[in-house]
Amino acid sequence: MIKIKGLLSTFMAILMTLVSYGQNLVSPKEIDVIYVSHTVFTSAYQEYKIDLKNRKLWEYSSDWREEYTPRDESAENEGFNFAHVLEDGKIEIFQRKAKWYGFASWRDLYQQLSFFFVTLDGEQWDITIVFSDGTERKMVGYNAWPLTWNQMNAAFEELTGERILLLKSDYY
Predict the structure, then answer these.
(1) What pLDDT digit, counting tens, does each position of 118-129 carry?
(2) Which CATH architecture best describes the domain 28-170?
(3) Cα Dmax for the chain
């Protein structure tokens, strides 16, 4: 009987550690807005504003193979075009997945390192998260991605119906 209680206590401790691990990776603050930008050879060609607070998805795109026209941030709606309204239930699920996958705790910088130099051509991305208290967090990547990138890509797609976080395989 004592052995079973000891095993049960150990099992519960491990379970609680695993559950709290996923939840403690991120700030307890709610995410209000997420800006996502993808760049190829220094020209942004796809930008998104995911406004969770106001339930709106905004987009801006430019064909990087032609003359690049940067988004006018001083224009109405920061130069974004309205795409569609986000569903409340999907926003709630997204917030939970973002916490579970440690989205707000991704490193500030991801970069592919070669033997002698840093590779700066190819795919660059940047994400800015605006929290409910007004603080911001910026993360960037140069041909490198966080471990939970694909999981968050799926979460963004479930939320918006769009492939917000492009996959590495889209470029290579």
Answers:
(1) 555 577 899 999
(2) 2-Layer Sandwich (3.30)
(3) 75
